Amino acid sequence: MNEAILSIDPGTRKCGLVLVDIKSQIVIEGIILPPNLIFEWVSKWQIDYCFSEILLGNGTGSEMIKRIISEKMKFEIKIVEEKGSTLRSRNRYWELWPPKGLISLLPRGLILPPEELDAVAALVLAEDYLNRKFAVPKRKSFKTLL
């Protein structure tokens, strides 16, 4: 059985969710979705993976997301600091999926990742909270339901 934690980077238009397995130190799943789909995915992942904790960034939309989950589920939600997580998620993206070809010659600060970073930001929140890095198996893109 997984010892999993769900991490959420909240927002009013979109949220990043990532589920990490603490024991194996891997990302199980990641997704970017609108806030109205949060409860559906949290419920599905709870059934599929039986995670033990929810981490929620303290930024824009966090109170709304906390309310959506708390009204329907009995979970203690740990609020975590997310200051600087957007910039750190860009750097983390390039650590996980280094650029290839001529783009790899450019300084990382000058190139934008080709994907939305909300799930990577949720990963950064989990990594900060747990003080460890997680691997993403194969070239697994995070789903986007926007």
Summarize this structure briefly.
By secondary structure, the protein is of the alpha/beta class. Helices cover about 30% and strands about 20% of the residues.
State the domain count. Answer: 1
Instruction: Please mark out the parts with pLDDT under 50 across 5 or more consecutive residues, or reply none.
Output: none
Taken as a percent bin, the fraction of beta residues is 15-25%
Radius of gyration: 15 Å
Based on the coordinates given, report the CATH architecture: 2-Layer Sandwich
The averaged pLDDT comes out at 92
Strand order of the largest sheet: 5-4-1-2-3-6
Q: Characterize the main sheet.
A: 6 strands, mixed
What does this structure look like?
The chain has 146 residues and is α/β, with parallel strands linked by helices. Helix content is 32%, strand content 22%. The chain has 4 helices and 6 strands; from the N terminus they run βββαβαβααβ. The protein has helices spanning 38-49, 62-70, 85-96, 118-130, and strands at residues 4-9, 15-21, 26-33, 53-57, 77-80, 143-144. The model has no long low-confidence stretch (mean pLDDT 92).
